[in-house]
C-alpha cells in the first residue's frame, strides 16, 4: 500500500503534482488515467522512488517492509518500473538485455529465471535478436520481461501501449493478466479503457496535477471527473 500525504512536485514554476493525498493499492491492478500533461508520469516517478516530492511524503509498505521518500532505503528491485521510452541496450540481444540485471545483482538460477520470462512473454522466436530487429511490441515485452525477471512484487508501467498496434495491445493485455494471476501488483498509466473497465481494482484519475477521482472500477458507472465523463461519452458515441 502506498500512502501519499500532501505530495507536491514542481518543475521550476510548473506544478506537476499538487497537494495529493491518497492511498494506492500495491497488490491489485491499478489504472492511472487522465489527460496529457496532467501529471501521470510525474506521479508514477514519485511512486517509483526515482524522484522525491518537493513537499509531503510518499510512504510504501511492500513485502512487509516500510519505505519513505524521506528515508534512505529504496524498494528496488522488489518494485520495478517500465517507463515511457524505455530503452533496451542496442548492442545487446534481448536475451542479454534481460539477463543483465540478474548478472549485476548476482542472482542465482539465471537460466531458469530467463526461461520462465521467455515463456511468459512468448519470446522464444525473437529473444536472440537485437532491439532494432524486433517490432515495438516485441521490444515492449522484452522491457517487461527485464522488469519481471528479478521477481518484483510490484511493477509500475508508464504508457504501456505506446507505439503498439491493436493486436500487440491485445497480446500485452493477456500478459498483464498473466502477471496478475502470478500475484504481481501492477500500476499502469494507460488509456486502455476496455481493460480498465474489465480489470481495474483501483482507478485513479489525474487532472491538472490533482486526483480528480479515485475508486474501484465502479467509477466507470457514474464518473464525476471531467476526464472520465468525456472519455465515456466519446466511447458511447462510437458505439452503434
Ligand atoms: P502526463 O504524464 O500526464 O502527460 P507529466 O507528469 O509528464 O504529465 O507532466 C506534468 C506537467 O509537468 C506538464 O506540464 C509537464 O510539461 C511538466 N513536466 C513534467 N516533467 C518535466 C520535466 N522534467 N521538466 C519540466 N517540466 C516537466
Ligand atoms: Mg506521461
Quick gist of this model?
It is built from seven helices and ten strands. By secondary structure, the protein is of the alpha/beta class. It has a six-stranded mixed sheet with strand order 6-7-8-3-9-10, sandwiched between helices.
Descriptive notes:
The protein has helices spanning 40-47, 94-104, 110-120, 136-148, 166-181, 193-199, 226-238, and strands at residues 2-11, 14-24, 29-33, 55-62, 65-68, 79-82, 154-158, 185-189, 202-207, 210-215. It is an alpha/beta fold. It has a 6-stranded mixed sheet, sandwiched between helices. Strands 2-1-4-5 form a 4-stranded antiparallel sheet, with helices on one face. A hairpin with a 2-residue loop joins strand 4 and strand 5. Helix 2 packs parallel to helix 4 (136-148). The structure holds adenosine-5'-diphosphate and magnesium ion. Adenosine-5'-diphosphate binds next to strand 2 and helix 1.
Q: Strand-residue fraction?
A: 25-35%
Q: What strand order characterises the main sheet?
A: 6-7-8-3-9-10
Write down how many β-strands occur, each being a DSSP E stretch of 2 or more residues: 10
What low-confidence regions span 5 or more consecutive residues with pLDDT below 50?
A: none
Rg (C-alpha, Å): 18 Å
**Integer average pLDDT:** 91
What small-molecule ligands were found? adenosine-5'-diphosphate, magnesium ion
Report the span from N to C terminus.
41 Å
Order of helices and strands: EEEHEEEHHHEHEHEEH
Number of helical elements: 7
The share of residues in helices is 25-40%
Q: Mind describing the biggest β-sheet? A: 6 strands, mixed
The dominant shape is globular
Q: What structural class results from the helix and strand content?
A: alpha/beta
Amino acid at each position: 500500500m502506498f500512502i501519499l500525504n500532501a505530495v507536491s512536485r514542481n518543475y521550476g514554476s510548473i506544478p506537476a503534482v499538487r497537494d495529493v493525498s491518497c492511498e494506492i493499492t500495491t497488490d491489485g491492478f491499478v489504472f492511472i488515467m487522465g489527460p496529457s500533461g496532467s501529471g501521470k508520469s510525474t506521479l508514477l516517478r514519485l511512486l517509483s522512488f526515482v524522484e522525491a516530492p518537493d513537499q509531503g511524503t510518499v510512504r510504501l509498505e511492500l513485502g512487509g517492509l516500510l519505505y519513505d521518500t524521506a528515508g534512505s532505503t529504496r524498494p528496488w528491485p522488489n518494485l520495478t518500473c517500465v517507463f515511457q521510452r524505455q530503452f533496451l541496450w542496442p548492442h545487446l540481444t534481448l536475451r542479454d538485455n534481460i539477463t543483465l540485471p540478474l548478472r549485476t545483482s548476482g542472482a542465482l538460477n539465471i537460466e531458469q529465471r530467463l526461461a520462465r520470462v521467455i515463456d511468459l512473454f512468448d519470446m522464444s522466436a525473437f529473444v536472440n535478436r537485437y532491439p532494432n530487429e524486433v517490432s515495438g511490441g516485441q521490444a515492449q515485452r522484452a522491457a517487461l520481461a527485464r522488469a519481471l525477471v528479478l521477481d518484483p512484487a510490484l511493477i509500475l508501467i508508464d504508457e504501456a501501449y505506446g507505439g503498439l498496434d491493436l493486436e500487440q495491445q491485445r497480446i500485452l493485455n493477456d500478459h498483464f493478466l498473466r502477471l496478475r494471476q502470478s500475484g504481481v501488483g501492477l500500476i499502469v498509466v494507460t488509456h486502455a479503457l476496455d481493460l480498465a473497465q474489465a480489470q481495474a481494482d483501483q482507478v485513479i484519475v489525474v487532472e491538472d496535477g490533482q486526483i480528480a477521482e479515485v475508486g474501484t472500477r465502479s467509477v466507470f458507472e457514474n464518473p464525476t471527473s471531467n476526464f472520465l465523463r468525456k472519455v465515456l461519452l466519446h466511447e458511447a458515441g462510437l458505439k452503434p
